[in-house]
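User: Could you check the structure of this?
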Amino acid sequence: MVLRSLLPCWIVLALAGSAAAQPPPAPEPGGARVFCAQSVRFALTPPAEVPRPYRRFLGVWSDAAWGPDACAALVVENIDRSGTATILYVYGPLGSSTSGPGGVLRGTGIVRDGALRFQNSDGTRFVFRPEFADLAGRMTTPRGDSFSALFKKSF
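Assistant: Sure, the predicted structure tokens are below.
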């Protein structure tokens, strides 16, 4: 009889102990990183909040070069149900021995037909397509010059 009355107490204690032993939820990925010699702050939306067809594009993509002197990185912070992406595009010289302009462009892109697309203020167009674990990028200048680069997922 005593054992039967203590059983509910043991169940409550066991459940309380297992709840306390679980790790706290992971913080939102984000923070600051250095890309192309520039410090960049970002905050990524948790993948579960991004529609499944677009999750492949979410994250930090870096270690890319459009040419021997041009570094690039892409941060896709969020993508909504319509396919509109919140992005950071980072560019600059490749290495400390190279000089040239650099910057961080904060803007929007769109995911359509399996590719993330956006254009900067000078008319340069960018298209990114998934390729295995990476993003294959194509940059086309207003003059029609075209460059390719492979962007590695780094976060």
